[in-house]
Amino acid sequence: MISLSSSSPSPLSLLKSCKTIRTLEQIHAQIIRKGSEQDHVLISEFISICNSLYPNKITYAGTVFDRVLQPNIYLWNTLIKGYSTYSSFATCFGFFRRMKQSCVCADKYTFPSIIKACSSVVALKEGRVVHGLIVKCGLEDDVFVGSSLVDFYGKCGQVFNARKVFDEMFVRNEVTWTSMIVGYSSTGDYLEAKKLFDEMPERNVASWNAMINGFVKSGDLVGAKLLFDEMPEKNMVSFGTMIDGYAKSGNMASAHALFDQSPEKDIVSWSAMISGYAQNGQPKEAVKMFNDMLSRNVKPDEYVMVSLMSACSQTGDWELAKWVDSYLSESSIDLGQHHVTAALVDMHAKCGNLDRAAAFFDKMPTRDLVSYCSMIQGLSVHGHAVQAIALFRKMLAEGLTPDDAAFTIILSACSHVDLVDEGCHFFEIMVNEYSIAPSTDHYACKVSLLGRAGRLREAYDILKEMPMEPHAGAWGGLLWACRIHGDVALGKEVADRLIKIEPQNPANYVLLSDIYAASNQWSDVHHVRNLMSEKGIRKLCGRSWI
DNA sequence: TTAGGGTTAG
């Protein structure tokens, strides 16, 4: 227990060396016991430490503040800064109002924080009111106040007003210039951003990073890398920005090289790598990276977990899905966030854990097309196509507009359970009600649907008449139907076509040979097998076009 | 008078 007796260190120095919330609570108890709750300097330091150690526990500082009878401007400012970044805007703005009501005048230290709070939620209306107050107080010439306004207008998409404030400032520093560059960059005006960057008298690492990010966002990774190499000092943000830029453009080799080079690897850099691998169809690499991250004691956050779930969906790793689920429920990650729940639904649906997927799906306050499709596809591929179709109908009834991917999923569901009429109906409404031009995949689904129902000629006609070249999968669906229904003549025709497209795929030969075998045409079977060995094609165990 | 402010990456 910490003692605040006269021989002990002063409460202020105790606060300054405080590292944990437990110690902070002990100091708080001592402050109360010593009757120091009205000591402005002490309470101001307390709020400041609380904010820097545990920004998400700023309400604790708020309760300590509320015990102060007549808080001075220092206390108000410290509190408002604490709330400006991490808490709800309404609470922060509420404190600002209370401060004015208690007849404490906002000063040049108050405005940057309250403007920052406005920027963080794009509260344009409130920010304009505060700007008016700033002018009224004659504080617009302060470089901190002015910079916060430039940043505010830029973040609210009002780059013209940002520039107006910028141009009217007498003194500007790196922060002012950087805020302006970010403003241009966020509206896509990269040329103007670069012009300012070249003009600015002095730059700091944030200025360089902002410009590199501008290049990355404009898609110019070469330009970004040139700046990155040129900058005098790099920090984690510099590396993180470049790594993410490479990862998003699919260049995982460059991303990985830079990741290996970066002296410190924080959660954003790990996240960029994991997400990059997951998005570029290398889910196993993503999982490997995640395990590597855990082994270095980096705590995953929601971004990382969402990427990991995407990787898990792709591999269908049921065990990993269960681990992720239990990890998330024990973590402090907010499961109420839509993208986290959507990822959970998708992961469980793809891994075949349908009850769990449905539990999350049902809990969602609003269900969008993506989550509906995750659920519908999960049901369809795991043997519940009828429920999948019912859910698709429910989705339509809710007024959601399906896209081409949604129709691929539902057509495929219909073909799984031979619901030919339903499938044809969905194909028809896709074209006529939703004005979606059928893709090769849509045609392939319809071919498979008709083919499996024995309507082989109709299916064949679709393949011949569709406006684009059918892919091998579409022909494969029909060949499979010929095998089921024993249509030797059509089977041969289709196999000939398929073999032209995919001469090295053993499945095409095997299926044709099976068709001959089923009708006892053994010399043809023999012929196909000879053809295979002439071409050096070996029969594989388990065959599929999917 | 011992304390308080604005910029950069997923």
From TrEMBL:
<dbReference type="Pfam" id="PF20431">
    <property type="entry name" value="E_motif"/>
</dbReference>
<keyword id="KW-0677">Repeat</keyword>
<dbReference type="InterPro" id="IPR046960">
    <property type="entry name" value="PPR_At4g14850-like_plant"/>
</dbReference>
<feature type="repeat" description="PPR">
    <location>
        <begin position="368"/>
        <end position="402"/>
    </location>
</feature>
<dbReference type="GO" id="GO:0009451">
    <property type="term" value="P:RNA modification"/>
</dbReference>
<dbReference type="GO" id="GO:0005739">
    <property type="term" value="C:mitochondrion"/>
</dbReference>
<feature type="repeat" description="PPR">
    <location>
        <begin position="235"/>
        <end position="265"/>
    </location>
</feature>
<dbReference type="Pfam" id="PF01535">
    <property type="entry name" value="PPR"/>
</dbReference>
<dbReference type="InterPro" id="IPR046848">
    <property type="entry name" value="E_motif"/>
</dbReference>
<dbReference type="InterPro" id="IPR002885">
    <property type="entry name" value="PPR_rpt"/>
</dbReference>
<comment type="similarity">
    <text>Belongs to the PPR family. PCMP-E subfamily.</text>
</comment>
<feature type="repeat" description="PPR">
    <location>
        <begin position="266"/>
        <end position="300"/>
    </location>
</feature>
<feature type="repeat" description="PPR">
    <location>
        <begin position="173"/>
        <end position="207"/>
    </location>
</feature>
<protein>
    <submittedName>
        <fullName>Putative pentatricopeptide repeat (PPR-like) superfamily protein</fullName>
    </submittedName>
</protein>
<dbReference type="InterPro" id="IPR011990">
    <property type="entry name" value="TPR-like_helical_dom_sf"/>
</dbReference>
<dbReference type="Pfam" id="PF13041">
    <property type="entry name" value="PPR_2"/>
</dbReference>
<dbReference type="GO" id="GO:0003723">
    <property type="term" value="F:RNA binding"/>
</dbReference>
